[in-house]
User: Fold this.
Amino acid sequence: MAKIGVFDSGYGGLTILSEIRRVLPEYDYLYLGDNARAPYGTHSFDVIYRYTLQAVEYLLSQDCALVILACNTASAKALRTIQQRDLPKINHQSRRVNVLGVIRPTVEAVPAISQTGHVGILATPATVSSESYVLELEKISEGLRETGDGLQVTQQACPMWVPLIEAGEHESDGAEFFVDKYLRELLGKDPEIDTLVLGCTHYPLLAAKISRQLSSISSRPIRIISQGSLVADSLKDYLQRHPEYRDQLSHGGSCRYLTTENADRFAQSASLFLDQSVCAAHIDL
Ligand code: DGL
Assistant:
């Protein structure tokens, strides 16, 4: 029987994994963090695609029927190519498998939340340069434009946030400085933003700081969308609609953790993200 694989460049995907396990506790999971090569967000398309494909191939080789790219950067830069170019070859050789991302389920929630139609995206430089959020939100606003409710999307790259979180420095004064800096830059570009997407799975670790800083920078209430529960609900819905994957999945309720870095170091930091202790194993990709 098969598992659900969850992949991120590092620890950020754990914020997605814990929501998925809350909504779908019955399945077996395999988490892979490519911590040795994180952050991905400052790499080029070729590198992000190559690293992500290696991780996906590894998870599929470990009996995962579905792989969730719990990483916006990998979803933005590698998902489409993997789905269109690589998966057809893999599916011809063996059982049915699929790879899903986190951007589409997030974007679908935006129109119902924003009152002004002014939306801010906080993400890694690679996700911002891919324009994936802008393009996906544009597709959604096509229909809304006819009713005069189109969306105005403004992006902000936050290159320092993932390195701070991966280094365990997200509670520090340094993190405070960089949260304030990027929020001010974003709201300087569009002060009417009322909805903010945390478009990187690491950023929920900074959510408390982000909302504190927002209330000191802006007088208008700003809603923060983080992705965990949206991705989890969307996966539940997907499995209901796709028995060809659902029926392959085993029901043990287990989760194993793999990292390309030192396993003890991963386990220690992952425990902070998950509020429980975990064991991890090292792998090379
Ligand atoms: N969690 C990844 C994301 O959602 C972080 C990317 C990185 O490694 O820079 O984009």
